[in-house]
Amino acid sequence: MITSALAGFAPQPVLAQTSSATQRSYAIPAQPLADALAAFGHQSGLDVSASPSVTNGKTSTAVAGDLSSSEALGQLLAGTGLTFRFVSATGVTIEPAPQAAEGSVTLGPVRVQGEGSGRGGGTVRQPADTRGTYTVPVTSSATKLDLAIKDTPQVVNVITRQRIEDQNLTQVADVIAQAPGISVMQQGVPGAGRIQYYSRGFPVTNVMLDGVVTTGAGNRDFDLWSVLDTAIYDRVEFVQGSTGLATGAGDPSASVNFVRKRPTEELLAEAKLHYGSWERIRGEVDLSSPLNGAGTLRGRVVGAYQQGDTWQDRVKSKTGTLYGIVEADPTENLMLTAGLLWTKIRVDDAVPFGMNPAGNLGPGGNPFPIISLGRSFNPATQWTYAEIEMLNPFAKAEWRFAEDWRLNVGYMFSKISQDRMYGGIGQYFYDPTANTASYSYGRVNVDGRIHNVDASITGKFHLFGREHDVVAGFSGYWGTMNNPMYMAIGTGAAPSTIAISGWNNGNQPLPTMGSPELIPGTGIPNPFDDLMNDVGAISQLKEKQYAGYFGARLRPVDHVSLVFGGRLNRWERSGRMWVPDLESVITPPFELKLVPQDLNTYSSKVSGKFTPYAGVVFAATPNITAYVSYAGIERANIDWETGTWFEDFEGNPLPPVRGNTIEIGAKAAVFDGRLNIQLAAYRMKQRNLADTFSEEARQAAIAAGGCPPGPNPLNIAGIGRYCAIPGKGYVSKGIDFSLSGQLTPRVNLSASYSYLHSKRAETGYQSCSGFGASGGGDASTGSYGGGAGFPCPEHTVKLFGTYQATDDLTLGGGAIWKSATKSSYPNGVGGLHPDAIRDQGSYAVVDLMARYRLNRRITISANIYNLFDETYLSSSDGLGGFWGAPRNVMFSLGFRY
């Protein structure tokens, strides 16, 4: 029995309910009820009394978040047939649910008896820990307001800490791949290869850290975010559709919000060891504790290290991560936060692209069949490597200056370096008849520094006898990216041809110009001979975005909420080049100097643009809502590979790319909010996307005499003028369904289905919009603008769940199924060719897991990925095809205090 030290005191319901109103941070996973009550007593500071005859054979519900003790205990006991009663200010007894017993708290919706519960919902706060659950009670990622998922007029999905641990998802790339409605285009191993995500037919480009919009150090930010370690995150939230209110510039696809772990109010000590296929070894440590007796100073430290091989021959990787955060409460209403993240990733012998699975067009224009050299074949040279390092200090202050009002101010700095030197075969073509392939080599060495600021006021006010919510704020970032350009190859790859018979498993020499003297016979050294290390120029890219925003939820009548807001945004990007001073090359001491070149200076901006957001939510019952919403977003009309603004054939910049989302849906929060269900239909349109392929674009080029040359005196790759016409519009339509949370006290489940109609009128194939001049279109209107894009599946099903079979054994499994795709991007041939098809049939990848608790401190677990060893391409587009991981396993040993 869990005895009460104050059992002799008389019941004091009034004092007890006053004490229970204080909120604390709880993190109690589902487990045998007696153990859960012990954990609750430890975390709440209350003395809990329960007879073994009452708790035997019962399992608790998971509890996570900032809750009062009554709310937490009510949630923990949900579904057990038990209730609780305060017997003193700090004493609680557990008993079978009585019929209106004196002083008892009934268990239904999680609340203290006597508190109000309206259809608009009460005050809720975001959870501090999402162990034990597959959903969250509240999120602000879509509107900047703390709203329950059912009250948010957009689809919001969450991958919680519990889900991350159940599936042993150790990289961000693994987490995003599990998110409902997300398609993955992956070329190469994360950390070395290119990776991009798509939602509702458009590329995902917006990232938030703890709710603050940010950017990466280069044009492909997810190459960085995807490789980060998940050990530091509590959850990852996804808002689908246009997210201009929260994130500013971007595409009408989705935004991703990474929510990092915070200190706990009680001691937490965890350590894990992992060992898996391809000699992968991993270790994690997570320590959190109050740092003083009053608990007003709290800290948390997380560390992770992983190394090992992959299914591709020769590929090796190492990842190290350290994260620390401190919270301090100088006063009752003020909380200060400071933290630091450092991470470093090194991947050897892995190229940033996949090898083309199909050959060039053969005789008569017919495509060669898909050819595979095997999933283990490595197309990289033995000197290829990729190295990423990130340093990210941050600070935040939260001041509660009134009962329902708070001010948040935050600053974050990121120093990011990404160095990739690569050589590989098969990116552009593979000719099986001649047994030759393209040989590409290059280097990208980016160094970036980004500053982020965010300030907001959130609160509640009363008008016409009703409570309303409002938020207003300012956010922005500014950063600089320096990119050395290696002479004769620029920023891209330099393709040539190599015989497969001479590949020698990637043992190739570093490429050189073969001219150690600049001018033969003069003795003047050639400063550009080493193509992979000699810097011939430097490009500098500066980007900044500032915005003021506001959002509100008004309740004009019963059962109806109006959620609306807007963002006034300014985005600007400028670039400059430093080029060789040729006089320094030919004059003793023959040392290359770089000087600024004004001809290579460019600037582009989108300023003073207002992005609206509006939604109407109708509460049919306290747990079921229906909604309709409109959200907008826009971005600069630039090529994301080079940062160059698209211009028309007369040299005028194209207008910004604008997108919007119209969405109608229904949501439900059932089982006391432990299970969220969402169903939505949407139509999204993006206008002005640069079009370089259509007949209209071709005629415009002819009329203008071609694309005028840009300011590029050195003819460096990627710095010329990009000419196009504004596309007529790219339209996608679809349906999203998702279910996540707790079906029963022993079952956690996440299930989703996504239907996407995004077919190309010219080919009839399903395809997502690309980044730059990919045109776009709608099969129903024939407004196809050209380009191939990425072959997104029309139907996607994602499923994962766990079942607690006994008090100590948990079993789980899931699958991702995708419908067939076709790609009409031919290999080594410009333009589109309707006969050059890459056809990938539908496929499913099945995963399993099992976890066994040896005792209250130690667990062992196993995860099997791709159980049936499905062979599939994780991407197939212009950068080649990359095979998905074959069957593999990971074993884990965990300790928790």
UniProtKB/TrEMBL annotation:
Chain residue ranges for the region called Disordered: 109-134
UniProt cross-references to Gene3D superfamilies, sorted A to Z: 3.55.50.30, TonB-dependent receptor, beta-barrel domain (2.40.170.20), TonB-dependent receptor, plug domain (2.170.130.10)
Chain ranges of the Secretin/TonB short N-terminal domain: 46-97
InterPro entries, alphabetized: Beta-barrel_TonB, Beta-barrel_TonB_sf, Plug_dom, Plug_dom_sf, Secretin/TonB_short_N, TonB-dep_rcpt-like, TonB_sidphr_rcpt
Protein's name according to its UniProt entry: TonB-dependent siderophore receptor
GO BP, sorted A to Z: siderophore transport
MF-aspect GO terms: siderophore uptake transmembrane transporter activity; signaling receptor activity
NCBIfam families in the cross-refs: TonB-siderophor
GO cellular component entries: cell outer membrane
UniProtKB keywords: Cell outer membrane, Ion transport, Iron, Iron transport, Membrane, Receptor, TonB box, Transmembrane, Transmembrane beta strand, Transport
Family under the similarity heading: Belongs to the TonB-dependent receptor family.
Pfam families given in the database record: Plug, STN, TonB_dep_Rec_b-barrel
Membrane topology summary: Multi-pass membrane protein
SMART domains: STN
Subcellular location as annotated: Cell outer membrane
